[in-house]
Amino acid sequence: MTRLSLILLLLLCAIGIRAQRRLVVVDVETLVPVTNANVTTQDGVWQTDSAGRITVPNTSKTLVVSHVNYEERIVDLSELRDTVFVISKLLNVKEVIVFGQDKQARDYRELNKRMQLEKTELQLAGAKANMGGGLNLMGLIGYLIPNKNKLSKKERKKKKLKDILDNY
After folding, report:
1. DSSP 3-state helix, strand, coil percentages of the chain (rounded to 5)?
2. Could you read off the pLDDT of 47-87 as tens digits, one per residue?
3. Could you give the strand order of the β-sheet that contains 70-76, starting from the edge strand earlier in sequence?
4. For 127-140, what is each residue's pLDDT tens digit?
5. I need a labelling partner for 2 at 20 to 30 A (CA). Which of 20, 62, 108, 138 fits?
């Protein structure tokens, strides 16, 4: 009698276990399990564990998977195997590269500019001494002030693009 009752008890447990399904809720892009996702069926509401796993009863036909960071998904249990894929609401950025300015490089550029300025001043002072005290003002102005007719490469490109856009 005890053997028969033990076998019946094991059979009932096996039937109860078989009436449930184990599912895993996974992010479709990263394939990482989603923790604390709400799974709603007509029988109740459950949450996934830290590995994205959940056990739901087989009695319901559909289930709704929802999470704050993911789109809500309605799934038919008859079409489902063991994994529920969800789509993220957030924009995932693959890689971000940040460029900064090196302080030493900036200091070096400033020092180089100062040296060029001092060199120019020395050349002007030497030209002044060679002229016997007289200075060619027109030559100096032409040297210091660039010709407005000569545009830099960047300015020419800007002007060309502006002309193209104006004619468009």
Report:
1. 40, 25, 35
2. 999 899 988 888 878 889 999 988 898 888 888 888 888 88
3. 45-47, 38-40, 62-67, 70-76
4. 555 555 555 566 66
5. 20
The strand ranges marked E within 6-144 are 20-27, 38-40, 45-47, 53-57, 62-67, 70-76, 83-86
Inform me whether the pLDDT recorded for 107 exceeds 70.
yes
Count of other CB atoms within 10 angstroms of residue 63: 23
39 - beta bridge partners? Answer: 46, 65
Distance CA 10, CA 3 (A): 11
pTM of this prediction? 0.46
Tally of CB atoms within 10 A around 136: 12
CA distance 53 to 159: 62
The residue to which tokens 């027109």 are assigned: 138
